[in-house]
Design brief:
Elements: H1 3-10, H2 13-26, H3 35-58, H4 64-88, H5 94-105, H6 109-121, H7 129-136, H8 138-152, H9 164-173, H10 175-189, H11 192-197, H12 199-204, H13 206-229, H14 233-253, H15 261-272, H16 278-286, H17 292-321
Helix pairs in contact: 1-17, 2-13, 3-7, 3-10, 3-13, 4-5, 4-7, 4-8, 4-15, 5-8, 5-17, 6-15, 6-17, 7-10, 8-9, 13-17, 14-15, 14-17, 15-17
Length: 322
């Protein structure tokens, strides 16, 4: 691996603010981002990503490569939860195995945002349709996770009042999914002149808001990490090893679908990331017996920092080598 690439990523201000958040918790500081401000920043980041992606998509020439990337992304969101479910089921209950599998088959918009920053440091571009791929990967993993739980549960661990149709609807109407898809469409429809009017908001402020958001994520991770580590080594090892394996495998496989380095990197990051927003919201409705104290810290406090520190340089190294 290129050591300079790893060092550059570790010196990224956004990542350093994330680490500052963890340090603040360890020092028992009263540093905190107000909940309403944190929610606004989350919405802003999703809006900016979606809008910019729509603009890039509008300037992209439609090709089969776009279709291939979407198919690859959807296949990833189906395969990963199926494979990981059977690994997890050996140690955990069916409900928890299904919820964790759904989280790791789904994607993290925040990891995607950080990946954009990583690519910018390397002066590597990616295509706007990757935003659509990310948004479309949220729902399939949730659906697969719920179906697996219902197939293998010996007890009534799911909420019988929730039909599969309602779960699918919830997946697509989840606020984060709806906002990024809606922003993508709006960005696609907006003319260059119209987009220029809000460019200072969608572009110039992006990195600053990202840094503040990652500071907040660091604080959240620092609070959850200690309690999570009490659950044992299996989930901790899983949260570190499985995402790295997924990222490496799909970094290689992505070469069969596109030769764009930025797109391949994004596909690898999406395969390696885990959802801690959309999936917990869906599982709370569909599988109330699944323990969020396990799968949320796995995704947020373990997998997320692993991906943004050592994962991304590894995926880029693999892509450059394949």
């Amino acid at each position: 691996m290129n050591l300079d690439l790893l060092i550059d990523n570790l010196k990224n201000p956004a990542l350093l603010f994330f680490i500052l958040g963890i340090i603040a918790v360890r020092l028992k500081s009263d540093l905190a981002i107000p909940e309403n401000s944190s929610k606004f920043i989350s919405l802003y980041l999703l809006f900016a990503i979606g809008f910019k992606g729509g603009q890039e998509l509008a300037h992209s020439e439609f090709s089969m490569e776009i279709i291939y990337c979407i198919i690859f992304g959807l296949s990833t969101a189906v395969l990963i939860p199926i494979i990981t479910f059977f690994i997890l089921k050996k140690k955990l209950s069916v409900s928890n195995a299904g919820a964790i599998a759904a989280a790791y088959g789904s994607v993290s918009a925040v990891t995607f945002v950080t990946a954009i920053s990583f690519l910018e440091l390397q002066d590597i571009t990616f295509n706007g349709h990757m935003v659509a791929v990310m948004a479309l990967m949220e729902a399939p993993a949730i659906i697969v996770g719920v179906v697996l739980i219902r197939m293998f549960s010996s007890k009534k661990e799911t909420d019988a009042s929730q039909s599969l149709g309602s779960i699918i609807k919830h997946s697509f109407t989840n606020g984060s999914v709806l906002l990024i898809l809606g922003s993508l469409v709006i960005g696609f429809l907006a003319s260059d002149e119209q987009a220029l009017g809000i460019k200072p908001f969608t572009n110039d402020l992006f990195k600053g808001f990202l840094a503040i958001f990652l500071l907040d994520m660091g604080i959240v991770c620092g609070k959850k990490l200690k309690d999570f580590l009490k659950n044992g080594a299996f989930t901790t090892v899983f949260a570190i090893v499985v995402p790295l394996i997924n990222g490496i495998i799909f970094a290689c496989l992505s070469g069969f679908f596109t030769q764009n380095i930025g797109d391949r990197f994004m596909l690898a990051v999406l395969a390696a990331s885990a959802s801690y927003i959309a999936v917990p919201a869906a599982m709370k409705i569909a599988v109330p017996k699944a323990n969020p104290g396990i799968f949320i810290p796995m995704a947020l406090a373990i997998t997320f920092p692993v991906n943004i520190t050592i994962g991304m340089p590894i995926y880029m190294f693999v892509i450059m080598s394949c």
